Amino acid sequence: MARQELGPHSLRVAQRVAEMLDGVEAAVVGCSGGPDSLALALGAEWAGRRPGTRITAVIVDHRLQSGSDRVAAETAELLAWRGIDAVIRRVDVRDTGEGPESAARSARRAALLEVAQDRPVLLGHTLDDQAETVLLGLARGSGVTSLAGIRPRAGSFWHPLLEIRRTTTVAACREWGVRPWHDPQNADPVFRRSLVRRSTLPVLEQDLGPGVAEALARTAVLMQGEDAVMAGLADAWLARHAVLPQDLAGDQSLPALPLPTLPLPDLVSEPRGLARRVVKAWLQRAGVESSFVHVEAVLDLQHARGGAGVDLPGARVTRRGRRLELNPGDESLS
């Protein structure tokens, strides 16, 4: 299909993918068969044709709905008809407490990475998905990192369509002459994102006027810049101040732990926002997930006596004199 044969919507999708794939020899596209990912796959095939970029579509069958195997097979056939190599990966979704949406996402991403190896994985998240992500983060009372939403490039996962509305991908599929699959779960209000998509955002658009989704997506872009600045400041602070206990000459009160300790007076003398980011980064480096409540409790150890501590998932932070130490729990940090 020549460039001039594309309609305005499909051309816009294809051009955005082409910009992100510039210089890439091979890429994987996650494709559910829905309008966003189907338009992405067709756009990637178009974008990769001239430079010779090899495109492989991966269809992940979560096996959570009746007939999911049929949907996966039909999507693979459609992609093959359009000249796109496609593979199907069936996964077992195990909810270990993070919720069904997160469990399915984790299983899906693991399957995509397994196929991709070192190649980038393109995902079809749109401006609407970005707006929903920011709104959900606001509802949870999240900080800058969460409000920064979906990054254009997050490790192996790339998102070329974050500036494109969902209506554009639907129209692009129509121009390409393909019929996408519409996931019934996207209309199920039991899922928070579906509720935001079908109810909350339309009500906001109705009450506040058009442009709410674009404004929320713009907030994500702004927060991504702020988050990068704060992450850099936290990393620099840790590089200056965090030390291993064995490097503290003359301080025999601290055991020889493999994890860095933090000087509490220096930490709490910083603005609270930076101190929070330092503690969060310190814990993340050790593989410890922490909430706002956890971080606040760690900082509040400035008011506690020596030996006082805060229990975290799989770890404990303890005040030892003028320093904070992080001790692995029974389920081990390594």
Walkthrough of the structure:
This protein is an alpha/beta fold. The chain folds into 2 domains: 3-216, HUPs (Rossmann fold, 3-Layer(aba) Sandwich), CATH 3.40.50; 242-328, Uridine Diphospho-n-acetylenolpyruvylglucosamine Reductase, domain 3, CATH 3.30.465.60. 49% of the residues lie in helices and 13% in strands. It has helices at 8-21, 35-49, 68-81, 100-116, 127-140, 144-147, 166-176, 192-208, 212-241, 264-268, 272-285, 292-299; strands spanning 26-30, 54-61, 85-90, 121-122, 153-154, 157-158, 262-263, 309-312, 315-320, 323-328. The strands form 2 sheets. A 6-stranded mixed sheet has the order 3-2-1-4-6-5, sandwiched between helices. Strands 7-10-9-8 form a 4-stranded antiparallel sheet. β2, α3 and β3 form a beta-alpha-beta unit. α2 packs across α7. It is elongated. Residues 248-257 have low confidence and may be disordered.
